[in-house]
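Archive record
______________

***
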Amino acid sequence: MNNPFSPAPEISVVIPAYNEGDGVERALTVIASVLETCAGDFEIIVVDDGSRDNTYARVCRYAETRPFVKGVSFSRNFGKEAAVLAGLKYARGRGVIVIDADLQHPPELIPAMVSKWKEGAKIVHAVKRSRQTDSLPKRLSAWAVNQLISRMGGINIHNSSDYKLLDREIVDILVYQLPERERFFRGLSSWIGFSEEYIEFDVSSRIDNESKWSFWSLVELTITALTSFTSMPLRIVTFLGVVTLILGFGVASEALWSWYHGQAVSGFATIIITLLLIGSFIMISLGIIGEYIAKIYEEIKARPPYLVKDTVGMGEPQNPQ
């Protein structure tokens, strides 16, 4: 168990993991070998997000002979954002790196990130230069989501990833000064400001060639990001109301024109189309408002973002307050 009075390591590495049993030991070996070349002392924290395989068991076995490896196991799957938050809470390092367990974030980038951090950068972002390992639909959907969030949310996440190095000051801000439970780590780390540096990388192939992300996971992440950083979707409701008003004036004008010229007021099809459009606008508006209400509901319940079932090699999470 960690001694709370022992000196903090220079670097902590946080690895959120879900069903990564086949590759987690390899990832730990590769990351540790890189850290040995650039960090005086370090720790690696694997946060098992309720995996259904033997991910946590392998981490525990690996930690038996390597005391720098720590493990946290959730009671169930709470999502990557919760796993990142838990890792940041337990990390003791003066600099904290967040990296994926599938090695798509190349560990060989760590020395350059550490170097920029030592030069004074509070946040070092690793941004994707290319995504050739992803399918065309996945690349297009990722591009569309990044554009949407960046333009509407007012934060720059173009080609960004969760692969980052954060100074201890930034970690404490993210963990203890931002109380929201519905979190978007990638956006929050850009929103807080401070001195930033960027390093480009090419996305590597996964260890097992099977992504844990689905289309609906991407949709859910997009909704969380938008509702967390902008009220712009609510303004769409106002826009749809204006469009409906203009449409109503148009239909009314056509009816008055026909009546004035002694023509039968036609427009059974027009009325049906108008009703369908208005109904669609109303349903879209209710959906947008409902998403914000759902986020408010989740926040005011004040449930913890995750529950820890077990830890290995760990003390209590850090709390400067």
